[in-house]
Structures are given as structure tokens and as C-alpha cells.
Specification:
The complex is a heterodimer of chains A (611) and B (350). Chain A is of the alpha/beta class. Chain A contains 21 helices and 26 strands. In chain A, strands 12, 13, 14, 15, 16, 17, 18 and 24 form an eight-stranded mixed sheet that branches. In chain A, strands 5-6-4-7-8-9 form a six-stranded mixed sheet, with helices on both faces. Chain A has a five-stranded mixed sheet with strand order 21-23-22-25-26, sandwiched between helices. Chain A starts with 8 loop residues before the first strand and ends with a helix. Chain B is α/β, with parallel strands linked by helices. Chain B has an eight-stranded mixed sheet with strand order 2-1-3-4-8-7-13-9, sandwiched between helices. Chain B has a three-stranded antiparallel sheet with strand order 10-12-11. In chain B, helix 1 packs across helix 7, helix 5 crosses helix 6 and helix 6 packs antiparallel against helix 9. The longest helix of chain B is centred in the first third of the chain and has 16 residues. Chain B starts with 36 loop residues before the first helix and ends with a helix. The chains are: A alpha/beta (611), B alpha/beta (350). At the A-B interface, strand 11, helix 7, strand 13, helix 9 and helix 11 of A face strand 2, helix 3, helix 5, helix 11 and helix 12 of B. Strand 20 of chain A pairs parallel with strand 2 of chain B.
């Protein structure tokens, strides 16, 4: 199997040049609404099918048509799939951004551009390829209306030829992309071929980048985090979903609708679920709480602005102890912020969402695999602890395509928590809803409709005693709040444990969510370039488990890397750690709205290390 | 004079068709003011549920925030209850009913809770036609915060402090009809007979029932100059019909004159009888209902009765094609697709 990256030399018009195989980032700059998403997906898939690890990141505007958008594809033989800071190969289709796109490149990068843009005059230290798209598209696409879309397929062909991507794989990717539309597939394939032929006859390869077949994607799948989450929820037995459209979370419930329509219709032709598009996020979470009270596995998905709107209801769920799952696909705030850019900016506000003493369990997936598996964890935890569980995804994870291992069918049975049935009540006679019978802070509940005269309890956001009766007594209030705290403490040993990589280093790194992909690469950079070994802990949940405390204790300096301004996770951790350990924490925080890259972390960490 | 002698068993307490006595429908002791209209409504709910033979365990009581929303604690203690946040009970009710379609949802709200803070959720509940009985206990003021105007207060109505309301009222009934609720009426907490009949018909209806019940606040809005006082209602109440109700399980056939009475057959076979007090009023005509409500406003009447009823429209549960068993308790074998499904999806993603 050809997995070589040895420096092969070949003669080119630019002289002796090192071949760079399976290690590059390709950036496609287009205008949104021009249909480039299909082209980019085809390109991504073709590389994936060549067995080369790949990732795709869409940097798009909050707009439907006409504004600049960039799509970055990174192919990497070592499996690094974080965003790469440097761009190696630009496909410049957007006249508005073309100049800036070209000016920001490092010397040696390649630029494929639409001929009329006339970019080659801008710099002499880049490789330029001009393609007359309009001339090429006319013969393959007689219908003028479609040309704008089909034009984008031409660059796929040109890139395939220049990088030596197997055309058979490109065709396969197109057939998959346009699965049920044979005519569209043929049209697009013709466009790709036109681009390929043009490159073969009219362009001379001058850049060093090549894609060569490997075997590193065997058996893997490509999926976005939101679809993975939707699948996870379906297999976790979700029965109720409410939602209000908001970027970047909408595609989660939309994927759920598609999957559930296919796989969750009973033999009677009826749905074993209800999905409701709510009037706003307040209603979305209100419905989740109502359904959770009734006993459904209920969830909603939203982003920061929705989380803010859900604050009051979150306190109600916390205090009445109703289960529910909220997916927060985080985007850049504050306020409307950058609605189409990624962030980890909701950590602190979500952990304590609502007024009074309120706190919530957070789960933090870093991959499509975890979006799938944590769906199950989230519902089980929500029902076990009779509380809301927030799954803190982000735009990068939720909306971008990720390579993933096939998901494992959940082996654990669905656990519904402490629910008393009619038969239980026949046996025990009655119950007090908020009594801590098992000394874990978790009471027993009944569901509305339980056919027993002693089943009913009164859910209320106002002060209540063990029996759920209205009470303003100081001792009732305090006892109840202390029990809720005990419940939260119990959760520490139930939430997903962190992933830890420890050696003997004195330097520790803590990260979470999608930062993970930059961090594993950054640790390798630190080792290879600076001979610095680091230990690493990836948080997967709040409240923090014991391992997190141990990790800080075992290291002199701990860098907490996150994608927000105010070091939100670090602030949370400070509240948890013994005072002597707090001074060991250092923040590396990034807030540009782009997925975190390894180089930025490496550079900042080295600066902070004083090197 | 008690004449029971030792040895003679006391007569069995009166029970309804499912063997429960009215005490099984009672709740906690009310903490509302003596004479509050809300307490009378609670009594009517108890009577109607008892007489209809509804199992209390099947009922889910839901409310928002305010005096009215406290009242579910004072009736039907054997029913589950959820006292949610201000103005947003409709969403909680929506989730609760969809999760368990066998529940009979009874929402109790107030004019502040529904027509101001809760307007967003109120209108969307109405347009979904969720099976629920939604009662607005309407007194025109915020009682629990000591008597500020609500959005149902009439123009010119006067607060105890002398402040005059100069904004037009929101007619929740007209809105409900416009938006898609399928059983809409207005009553008065002091009209025992009318409210009782309307509540029983509401229990028989499948879809959204919206009842605006004028319910005077004896502490903050029962004075001269208020348009939501007992006295004002006694003087201005204009019933559209005489409402009576014949449940399906009571096989009584009473003759009625089709010229003077409209009979509506409810989903369960019960019959709602409306003896016309206005010659040409047809409660199945939506447009006419809205027009008549607007006329009432122009004329300074407080129109009561069943304004609109539609037993044909599909409910939200029907529209969502939800399976017959409650979603809440579907077993794992139904809610978790098999391994082959996951394998199929994985294959599609390769």
C-alpha cells in the first residue's frame, strides 16, 4: 500500500521540488448560494475514498445568497483533522475576496482561479492556474440557468487532475451525492470531466501537492455531528422532540425528523414519537418539561440565544426535578454574535442557567462518535437524576462533516430512573416525592396517569416540602436545596469520565469538545519541534469527576485550552479546586470564531512557557 | 334533627358512575380570598368531573402563575398537577399531552397569565387544537401583585386607586376562535348553571376548549367603576343561549324544538343543547361568532354562552399521527430500532 511520504523529487518549471503527499489544506472561496457545497462534498468524499484521512470545514456567512463563504478541506496522512492554519491550495471563485485570499497565502501555495479574475499578477511567489469556467461550462450545460451551479463542479475536475485524485472515486462520490437524481449526477459528472480534461491539456503541474491512495479510512463513515446526535437520540429511545429553528442546531432536529420517519413508525403506521416545531425556545423547553413530567424521553436542540431564553424554565426543571435533554450547538456570542461561527462560549452560563442556586449537568462531546453515544448517556442521566442534561456541542462539530468510526449499537438497556408504578404503589402504599430515601439526593416520582389514588404529586416551582406541598418554611427550603446539592454531588461519579493521557510531564493540558483535535496535533508539534512532553486531559462532563482534581494536582502548570474569551471552563474549575491548586491553572483561550488550530495553541503555550 | 338509630347502617354516600364520591374530587383548602370567583370555578370543576365520572388519576392539571394558577391545589387532589412558570403553561401542557395522549388536560390560567406575558404561548396553543380544557379565570387585574390592570380590562374601567384603563381589552374568546380553537365560550363564575353545563360539554370535547370565565376579584376589582365586578356582571351579562348538556351515558331523550334549540353532538355521543336566546345565532359559524363578539364590545354587553363549537377538526394528536399507546411508557423494544437499522445507516454513510 502506497502510504509513503518520502521526498520524491520531480522536475517542474519551478525547479527541483519536494513532493508533498497527503498533507495539505485546500480552501475553496465561493459566494454562498452558488451550490458549491455539493462540489466540496464530492471533493471531500473523493479524498476520503482514496483512504486518506480528511476533514471539511465550512466557514459560511449568516446569509442565504451572495456573501463570501469558504470551505476548507484538510487531507492528512497522520490523521490530523483539526483546522490547519496555513492554506496550501486555494480555489478562488469569488471575485470579492479573491485578492485578499491570495494576499494572505504563504509563499509556495497554489491558486486555482477563474480566468477573468486575473490573479496571477498579484504575486510572484505562488503557483497560479487559470481556468476559463464560463467557456468550459457552456458546452456541458446547455441550460443557462444551471450554469452557476454546475460551474462549481468544474473545479472539482481540475483539482482532481492536479492532485491526482482517481476519477473513478470522483464519479463514485458524485453518484452518492446525487443518489436519486441520475440526470443531475450525469450533468455534474460531465462538468467534472470537462475540468479534468482542461487541466490535462492546458495546465502544467507546478505545485508539490498530491493525493495518493492509503488505507486509513477503511470502514469509516462521514457524518456531521448534528446527524450523529439525531441518530444517537433515536437509538436512545427519544419519544418527544420540540425545537425552534436556530443556526447551528436546526439540522439536528431536521435529521431526527428524517431518521424517525424512516425507522420509528410502528407496524400500525403510527409514529412512536412526536416532534413539534415550537413558537420559540421558551415553548420548546416548556414542551420538553411537560413531556418529561409525563414520562417521555424528551429533548430540544438550540444555540446560545435559545439557551438564554430557556433560563427561567431551566430553573423550573431543576427545582421541580423533571428530566429533559437540551442540545446546545454553540455559536459565537454575545447576543446574535457571529451566528455561523463556532465557539465554546456557553459553558458558564449554561452550567448555572437560571436564577437562584441552580446548576446543571453538562456533557461535552468532541466527535461524531460521542454525539451518538452521549445521546444515550444524556437521557439516562436526565432520567436517573430527574434533571436537565445539557449536551454542549458546537457549530464546528454539529454542522461540519467528520470522519468517524461506525457507531456502536448501544449495549446498555434504557434506564428510566426511579419511577413508581401502580404496582409499586400497591406495595408501598404511598410516597413522598422529594424524600431522599436512598441517600443519593434522588427522590421517587410517579407519572401523571398512574392509576392509583396515592400516585399524584404537585409539581411546583414555588417552595415545597418533601411531599411536594407548598411551603415557605425556612427548614423545608434549606433541606430541599441541600438535597438538590447532594444529588449534584452524586452526579460526579455518574457522568462520563475524562479521557486522560499521562506520562511523567510536569505540564498538563486540559481541553474539551472540538478543541481536542487541535490539542492532539499541538502535543505532537510540541514533542517534535520543541522536545516538550505534555500530559493531557479531555473533559467530557460537568460536574468534574475526581480525575480532574488529580490531574491538576499531578502537574506544576496546567493549560486549560478553550474557545471563548473569559476562560469559562477554567472559571468553573476554580470553583471546584482546593485553593492551593488554582494558581497552577493557565488559560489559553481563542475567540476568532474559526475552529481551533494546533499551531495557535503550540505558539501560545510556548510563549507562556517562556520559550 | 338526626334520626339515625344505632344498628341501622348509615346510607351509602352518593357515588358517580365509576363509584367515586364527590369527596374524591376535592383538593386542599383554598387560600384565596373569601368570595373569590376562582373558588366558585373550582367547585364547578369538581362537580362537572364528578358528574361526568372522570377518573381523577386520568386528569392532569396545569397552570401558570397568579391567583388563578394557584387554584389547581384546591380541587382534585388525586390528579397530578403542574404549576409552571408565568404565562407558559400552554407549552408544558402541550408536551404533557403529546407524551401521554390518554391524559385529560385541564389548564387553569388567568387574564394576566394568558393575555399579557403568556400571549405568545396562548395563541399557539389555540392554533394547534391540542386536546385540553383551557380556562381563563378572568378578573381584569393582577391580584397576586395587588391589583394592577391586566390586558382584558375594559376601556374606562377604574382601579380602586382611581386609575382609569385607557387601552382596549383583548378578547381572548375572539382570538381563540380566529386562531383555531374548536370549543370557545365565556361564562361567569356566578352563573352556576351555565358554567356547569359548559364544563361538562368541555369534558366531552376533543380538541382545544377555551373558556373565559369572568371571575371577580373581591379584593382589588369588585368596586363601583369596575367592569369585572359581581354587580357589573349581574347588570351586563348577556347570555346567548341557555346551555344544557346531556352526557352520553345518560340515555335520556328529551324532546326539543329544533326551531328554538340547537343540538350539537359531541365526540363521545353526548349532546350539547343551546336554547337560542338570539334568533339567528349559529355556534358552528366561525365568522358569525367573531362578528357577534365584536358587536357585543360595541354595545357594552358581556356576552356569555358557547360562541363556537367544531367537532370535526382534527386535534393536534391526530395531526401528529401519534401511536395509540402513551409515548411516555413505550417499551425499549419499540423505541430503540434494531441493530440492522444502525448497520444500514452506517452503510449509507460510508
Amino acid at each position: 500500500m502506497a502510504t509513503t511520504d518520502v521526498a520524491l523529487h520531480e522536475a517542474s518549471s519551478r525547479g527541483e521540488q519536494k513532493r508533498v503527499v497527503n498533507d495539505m489544506s485546500i480552501q475553496v472561496a465561493t459566494v454562498n448560494g452558488s451550490g458549491s457545497q455539493s462540489s466540496n462534498t464530492v471533493l471531500l468524499r473523493s479524498i476520503f475514498q482514496m483512504g486518506v484521512p480528511v476533514s471539511g470545514k465550512n466557514l459560511f456567512p449568516s446569509n442565504i445568497a451572495g456573501l463570501p463563504t469558504w470551505y476548507t478541506i484538510r487531507a492528512n496522512k497522520d490523521g490530523y483533522i483539526a483546522r490547519k492554519k496555513e492554506i496550501d491550495f486555494v480555489v478562488a471563485m469569488n471575485s470579492e475576496t479573491a485578492q485578499e485570499d491570495v494576499m494572505s497565502l504563504a509563499p509556495g501555495a497554489a491558486v486555482l482561479y477563474d480566468e477573468p479574475l486575473n490573479l496571477s499578477a498579484l504575486r510572484s511567489d505562488l503557483v497560479f492556474y487559470a481556468v476559463p469556467y464560463d467557456k468550459l461550462v457552456a458546452p456541458v450545460c446547455p441550460e443557462a440557468k444551471l450554469r452557476k451551479l454546475v460551474k462549481n463542479m468544474i473545479y472539482v475536475g481540475v483539482v482532481a487532475r492536479l492532485l491526482e485524485i482517481d476519477m473513478a472515486e470522483v464519479e463514485k462520490a458524485i453518484r452518492k451525492q446525487f443518489a436519486k437524481k441520475v440526470k443531475a449526477a450525469n450533468l455534474n459528472l460531465a462538468a467534472v470531466q470537462a475540468g479534468y480534461d482542461y487541466a490535462a491539456t492546458s495546465l502544467v503541474k507546478q505545485d508539490p501537492y498530491f493525493i495518493q491512495r492509503m488505507d486509513k479510512t477503511q470502514g469509516k463513515i462521514i457524518i456531521d455531528g448534528n446527524s450523529a446526535a439525531a441518530l444517537g437520540c433515536m437509538f436512545a429511545g427519544v419519544t418527544f422532540i420540540s425545537w425552534y429553528p436556530i443556526t447551528p442546531s436546526s439540522s439536528l432536529p431536521e435529521a431526527a425528523i428524517e431518521y424517525m420517519k424512516r425507522f420509528r413508525i410502528g407496524p400500525d403506521g403510527k409514529a412512536t414519537f412526536a416532534i413539534v416545531q415550537a413558537e420559540d425556545e421558551l415553548a420548546a423547553i416548556g414542551m420538553v418539561i411537560g413531556a418529561g413530567w409525563s414520562g417521555a424521553r424528551a429533548m430540544t436542540a438550540t444555540a446560545g440565544p435559545g439557551i438564554s431564553l430557556m433560563a427561567e424554565f431551566s430553573g423550573l426543571a431543576y427545582y421541580t426535578e423533571i428530566p429533559g435533554v437540551i442540545w446546545d450547538v454553540q455559536r459565537v456570542g454575545p447576543s446574535t454574535g457571529l451566528p455561523t461561527r463556532t465557539s465554546q462560549g456557553d459553558i458558564l452560563s449554561t452550567a448555572f442557567l437560571s436564577h437562584g442556586d441552580t446548576k446543571h449537568i453538562l456533557l461535552i462531546p468532541c466527535s461524531a462518535e460521542e454525539c451518538f453515544s452521549m445521546a444515550h448517556d444524556a437521557f439516562d442521566l436526565a432520567e436517573h437524576f430527574q434533571t436537565l442534561v445539557f449536551v454542549m456541542s458546537d457549530l464546528d462539530l454539529g454542522m461540519n462533516n467528520w470522519m468517524a468510526d461506525p457507531f456502536h449499537y448501544p449495549e446498555k438497556p434504557i434506564k428510566r430512573g426511579k419511577v413508581l408504578s401502580k404496582e409499586d404503589l400497591d406495595r408501598v402504599g404511598g410516597f413522598a416525592r422529594y424524600k431522599d430515601v436512598d441517600n443519593d439526593g434522588i427522590g421517587y416520582r410517579t407519572l401523571p396517569g398512574t392509576d392509583h389514588p396515592a400516585a399524584a404529586w404537585f409539581a411546583r416551582g414555588s417552595g415545597h416540602n418533601e411531599k411536594g406541598q407548598y411551603s415557605e418554611r425556612p427548614d423545608d427550603y434549606e433541606k430541599n436545596m441541600e438535597r438538590l446539592n447532594r444529588k449534584f454531588e452524586t452526579a460526579r461519579s455518574f457522568v462520563p469520565r475524562p479521557e486522560v493521557w499521562t506520562g511523567k510531564s510536569k505540564i498538563g493540558i486540559i481541553g474539551y469538545g472540538t478543541s481536542h483535535w487541535a490539542l492532539i496535533e499541538s502535543r505532537d508539534q510540541l514533542r517534535k519541534e520543541y522536545y516538550i512532553e505534555t500530559d493531557y486531559l479531555r473533559l467530557r462532563a460537568y460536574p468534574f469527576t475526581r480525575e480532574v482534581h488529580d490531574f491538576v494536582r499531578q502537574h506544576d502548570r496546567v493549560y486549560l485550552v478553550e474557545q471563548n474569551r473569559d476562560a469559562q471552563m477554567l472559571s468553573l474549575l476554580k470553583l471546584d479546586l482546593e485553593p492551593s491548586l488554582i494558581a497552577r491553572l493557565y488559560s489559553i483561550a481563542h475567540i476568532h470564531g474559526l475552529p481551533l488550530d494546533a499551531r495557535s495553541v503550540t505558539d501560545e503555550l510556548m510563549t507562556m512557557e517562556g520559550k | 334533627m338526626a334520626t339515625t338509630t344505632a344498628g341501622t347502617p348509615a346510607p351509602a354516600p352518593k357515588t358517580n358512575r365509576i363509584g367515586l364520591s364527590v369527596i374524591d374530587y376535592r383538593g386542599g383548602k383554598t387560600t384565596l380570598c373569601a368570595g373569590c370567583g376562582h373558588n366558585a370555578i373550582s367547585e364547578r370543576i369538581i362537580d362537572a368531573m364528578y358528574e361526568m365520572g372522570i377518573k381523577p388519576e386520568r386528569v392532569a392539571k396545569l397552570s401558570g402563575i397568579g391567583c388563578s394558577s394557584k387554584s389547581p391545589a384546591y380541587f382534585m387532589g388525586r390528579s397530578h398537577s403542574f404549576n409552571a412558570v408565568h404565562g407558559r403553561m400552554p407549552s408544558v401542557a402541550t408536551g404533557a399531552v403529546l407524551a401521554n395522549r390518554n391524559l385529560m388536560a385541564l389548564g387553569v390560567s388567568g387574564d394576566g397569565d394568558s393575555a399579557s406575558i403568556g400571549m405568545g404561548q396562548f395563541v399557539h396553543l389555540m392554533r394547534r387544537n391540542l386536546p385540553i380544557i383551557y380556562i381563563i379565570e378572568d378578573n381584569g387585574v393582577y391580584g397576586l401583585t395587588k391589583g394592577q390592570f391586566s390586558a382584558t380590562a375594559d376601556m374606562g374601567s377604574k382601579l380602586k386607586t382611581g386609575v382609569i384603563n385607557d387601552l382596549p381589552p383583548i378578547d381572548t374568546c375572539a382570538m381563540a376562535i380566529t386562531l383555531g380553537a374548536t370549543f370557545v365560550g365565556r361564562s361567569f363564575s356566578g352563573d352556576k348553571k351555565q358554567l356547569h353545563a359548559m364544563l361538562k360539554a368541555a369534558i366531552a370535547h376533543q380538541g382545544t376548549v377555551m373558556l373565559d370565565v369572568v371571575s371577580p376579584c373581591v379584593t382589588f376589582n369588585d368596586h363601583e367603576g369596575s367592569t369585572k365586578s359581581y354587580k357589573y356582571m349581574k347588570d351586563h351579562d348577556e347570555p346567548l343561549q341557555e346551555v344544557s348538556f346531556v352526557p352520553a351515558f345518560e340515555d335520556i331523550s328529551v324532546e326539543y324544538d329544533a326551531g328554538t334549540t340547537i343540538e350539537v353532538t359531541m365526540h363521545d355521543g353526548s349532546r350539547l343543547r343551546l336554547r337560542k336566546l338570539e334568533e339567528d345565532y349559529d355556534p358552528t359559524n366561525r365568522i358569525r361568532a367573531i362578528t357577534r363578539l365584536n358587536e357585543a364590545h360595541e354595545q357594552g354587553e358581556v356576552l356569555t354562552g358557547v360562541f363556537y363549537v367544531n367537532t370535526k377538526a382534527p386535534s393536534f394528536v391526530d395531526l401528529l399521527n401519534i401511536t395509540e399507546q402513551p409515548l411516555a411508557t413505550l417499551p425499549e423494544s419499540i423505541v430503540r430500532p434494531g441493530r440492522e437499522v444502525l448497520e444500514q445507516v452506517m452503510e449509507e454513510l460510508r
